[in-house]
Amino acid sequence: MNEMPSIHQKRLAIDEQICALLFQRKELSAHTKDSPTDEMMKEWAQKYGFDDKFLTMIFSVIKSEKYYQSRVEPVGFRQYIAVLQSQGVGDRIYTISYVRQYENASVVQLLIDWDYEKDSYQDIHHLNRHYLGLFIDQKYECRHTGACGSDGYESNRYVVTPPLPDDIQGLSFIFTEYKDVFEEKPTGLTVTMHC
């Protein structure tokens, strides 16, 4: 005799469907990083009986999923790979001098130099702190792990997993500047270095 599923079982089935839909969304978002607009949130909130601020919070958490993933920390240093690539854009020069190879990851360090006495970059940069994302290839996750610097100098560090090959010839390092860490609002600045 078939028993009717309990409310608890039905709710669990819906919860699993939500997870499946989140997975599908994640797969589709690998190629584009767009989000619902405020107008869409208001429309959906009204349609489904939610508060639009609640929906905004839900989608904000979805966007930040990468911050909840387990973080690979580089261990087992192996070698340095010389890159020695620079590109000047405006009054700044962007440089990758080398990649540090570890057993489980690679570390890319982007150096930015400028003449701080002209202070065009310094004033804009300190008032409007932007985020530089790194893209190499779909198979690599590139995680920005921090920036530091002083007058006329900044260093950005990226952990790349899985590790880059020891022969990086043919790879491109594409740095894109964004207004936010979700990498949704590009400023228009892109710096590409080919090996």
SSE inventory with pairings:
Elements: H1 7-29, H2 38-48, H3 52-63, E1 77-89, E2 92-102, E3 106-114, H4 120-127, E4 131-135, E5 141-150, E6 153-161, E7 172-178, E8 186-194
Antiparallel strand pairs: 1-2, 2-3, 3-6, 4-7, 5-6, 7-8
Helix pairs in contact: 2-3
Question: Can you tell me about this structure?
Answer:
It is a single chain. With 195 residues, the chain is α+β, with helices and mostly antiparallel strands. It is 28% helix and 37% strand. The protein contains four helices and eight strands. It has helices at 7-29, 38-48, 52-63, 120-127, and strands at residues 77-89, 92-102, 106-114, 131-135, 141-150, 153-161, 172-178, 186-194. The strands form two sheets. Strands 1-2-3-6-5 form a five-stranded antiparallel β-sheet, with no helix packed on it. The longest helix has 23 residues, at 7-29. Residues 121-128 have low confidence and may be disordered.
